[in-house]
Amino acid sequence: MNLKIREKGSVKMKKVEVKGVKVDKQTRCEHYHTEKDIIAIKFKCCNTYYPCHLCHEEVAGHESVIWKREERGQKAILCGVCKTELTINAYVNSGSKCPVCKSSFNEGCQTHYHLYFE
């Protein structure tokens, strides 16, 4: 897979497109780019993956809509390492590790759950 960092735009990842600002091949962006910032979130409002709420705000052109509690069975999280799509429940209960490849997710993302999930 030969992916390049792009300014505003998108990166195709194994049939999954991730839009945002300076998105790398593991879904890091201009706003969140530590070693553990390796997830993208599918926004309910546009059914599109973004690395973070700030990328959505800058690129999408519309207000975000959060996932309802009863929708937590939906696949809405992408592991940037193994490219597995996880359900919201699987992600929230993952202990900040991908259940498939065991890569560590940023534990601090939990403080932003309210921006994405009810």
UniProtKB/TrEMBL annotation:
Signal peptide: none annotated. Residues 22-111 form the CHY-type domain. Keywords: Metal-binding, Zinc, Zinc-finger. The keyword Ion transport does not apply. SUPFAM superfamilies: CHY zinc finger-like (SSF161219). InterPro entries: Mito_Tim_assembly_helper (IPR052604), UCP017292 (IPR016694), Znf_CHY (IPR008913), Znf_CHY_sf (IPR037274). PANTHER family: HELPER OF TIM PROTEIN 13, ZINC FINGER PROTEIN. This is CHY zinc finger protein. It comes from Halalkalibacter alkalisediminis. The lineage of its organism: Bacteria, Bacillati, Bacillota, Bacilli, Bacillales.
